[in-house]
Amino acid sequence: MGSTNQTNLPALATNPKAIFFTDFDGTITLQDTNDYMTDNLGFGYPQRRSNMDDVLDGKRTFADAFKEMLDSVKTPFDECLRVLKDNIKLDPAFKEFFDWCRANNVPVVVLSGGMQPVIRTLLAHLVGDEAVKHMQIVSSDVAPSPGHTDINEEGGWTIAYHDESEHGHDKSLEIRPYAALKERPVMFYAGDGVSDLSAAKETDLLFARAGRDLVIYCEREKVPFTVFHSFSDIHKIVQSVVEGKQTVQEAATGRN
Questions:
Q1: Cβ of 100: how many Cβ atoms within 10 Å?
Q2: Fewer CB atoms < 10 Å away: N or C end of the chain?
Q3: Residue 253 in 3-state DSSP?
């Protein structure tokens, strides 16, 4: 922990002034892919909402509730990918922000509770294969479900979690080695929901998408944050901080 070994901390490879960590579902995308599959191909919105409310209220772990959601989707995985490509939209300002980050040596690290094949397929579809090559993506994966060998058959897949934490992917574990450095870049994080709870306290400035569960959590736990409606909001603030025109403390305005 705290080593500057670039293998362990790849976002340091270019000696950046800032690193931008971000959730994928409902943050880079306007809709959450896992929610979309559950609502339209699985057990539906009411049960999904009940599962997530239980997590927010501390009655269930995220890993347990989320796996139950995805296991309700019996559609073959390749068909799920086709459905998502047809229906999931990118935040319209993300590509411009990502291009600015690349031009200004601000690594973008995607930390997702979702599945790697979904993320890579949608990012390639929405921003292009070349952009995906320049993103570090740390996420859970997909695996054959018990009794199956082919994820592309009915009921054939399940989520394979990134770790054994109660979150399924404890995003804070990816961020803490950077935070532990005596001299380190400014660190940003953008998220929207319950899967971002573990990362919410770990960076210098947290962006929480307006109207989503992460805002409720931050207010409840008194975690400093600023709301964003689109990546254009994030772009303005990140650029201002990186250029020294604003501090992260000044930017943490909550719902304002």
A1: 14
A2: C
A3: coil
> DSSP letter at 145?
P
Q: What number of other Cβ atoms are within 10 A of residue 160's Cβ?
A: 13
88-139 per-position pLDDT tens digit: 999 999 999 999 999 999 999 999 989 999 999 999 988 899 888 889 999 9
CA gap 255, 215 in Å, rounded: 8
Encoded tokens for 157: 């897949």
Short-list 233, 25, 230, 33, CA closest to 137: 25
Query: ∠93-49-23 over CA atoms, to 5°?
Result: 30
25 token code pair: 């579902």
Structure tokens belonging to residue 190: 């953008």
Q: Which two tokens stand for residue 44?
A: 């539906």
Q: 18-251 belongs to which CATH class?
A: alpha beta
User: At 4, is the pLDDT very low, low, confident or very high (cuts 50, 70, 90)?
Assistant: very low
The domains of the chain are located at 18-251
Residues that are catalytic: 23, 25
Q: What is the pLDDT of residues 16-52, one digit of tens each?
A: 999 999 999 999 999 999 999 999 999 999 999 999 9
Taking the model in full, what pTM does it have? 0.90
Structure tokens given for 184: 């380190």
* Type of residue numbered 158: T
